[in-house]
Fold this sequence. Notes:
Radius of gyration: 34 Å
Order of helices and strands: HEHEEHEHEHEHEHEHEHEHEHHHEEEEH
Shape: elongated
Helix content: 40-55%
Structural class: alpha/beta
CATH class of the largest domain: Alpha Beta
Strand order of the largest sheet: 8-7-9-10-11-14-15
CATH architecture of the largest domain: 3-Layer(aba) Sandwich
Distance between the termini: 113 Å
Number of strands: 15
Largest sheet: 7 strands, mixed
Amino acid sequence: MHAKLSAIALSVAAALAVTGCGKKEEPKPAAAPAAAPAPAAKPEVLVKIGHVAPMTGPQAHLGKDNENGARLAIEELNAQGVEIGGAKAKFELIPEDDQADPKQGTLVAQKLVDAKVNGVIGHLNSGTTIPASKLYSDAGIPQISGSATNPRYTQQGFKTAFRVMANDVQQGKVLGEFAAKQGAKTVAIVDDRTAYGQGLADEFKKAAEAAGLKVVATEYTNDKATDFKAILTKIKSTKPDLVFYGGMDAQGGPMAKQMKDLGINAKFLGGDGVCTPEFMKLGGPATEGHYCSLPGMPLEKLAKGPDFKDKFTKKFNAEIQLYAPYVYDAVMVMADAMKRAGSVEPGKYLPEVGKTAYEGVTAQIAFDEFGDLKGGAISLYQYKGGKLEYVETLGGGAADASKAGEKK
């Protein structure tokens, strides 16, 4: 019995020994924690902004200036990562050339409508802006001009039409009053028969006559002309104290030069279309001492003006010709309305455009019931030493503009 138990014990010990020499069972690794889901990328919405100006022809330098103002705004909006309705907005500029021609203006307007742009900035000229505005109105696309000044643009009753600068009624009135302040008693008037030039000249004439000036000659040219000796010879015989020109710099510069060649000693006065470096380039020394006007206050007197000028000149390696700051503001006003509406759909953000209260580069921008800039001030300049020298600011909103310029 004892021997039997010993044999059993030995068998158990042997079994245990074999088991102990066996490979240990490796513990199962703990399950890796589930990876957190990647955050969903924010949706992106494409915002197509049409821009129209003459990019070819005698006004191409102004068209390029306008387009650069729009491009600067578009690039800044994209750099800011603007969100509209919870989606990141990607702004894209769709540029078109209307050649300053009304027929071409309607063709490119229809092209932008067909492209389903979200909004339109432009056109540059009143003559192209007015017919094009009907197409944008029919399509329900908001349009903000930074340069078309003829009152008819906003007086057609289109709820889609806005402008961010003073119109010709405001500007013509100030120019007529300024002519009287300069001591002029008699005035000759020339315009280029475009919607802008004729409209401004008509408003100037009303204001000049109301201020007691006598209109001794009224002559017409066109926006392609370069020889004005025939009409200037007629004007010379009337011996005016001042010659007013309603039109653009491509004609105004040569006109001033030919006035001097013919011995016409009258002062030359024009609106925003001739208030450019190009006018002085084309007219040369003959432009010295003459006058022009621009809507709003000088950039250097505005809170955001110097910074804008610095950014613009560095980016494009060019000086501002004329309307670039206004076009820049027009783009920003449109984007601001989209943000407030939470939508880039024209029908949804259009009501917000009319409610704008935006501190732009050129002015505190708000619109009246017609879509015109409220209280548009007008500044006068004199050509001196190849530069535009600020004279004074007149008209509605001048005091408010001056206060805005004091902000630091």
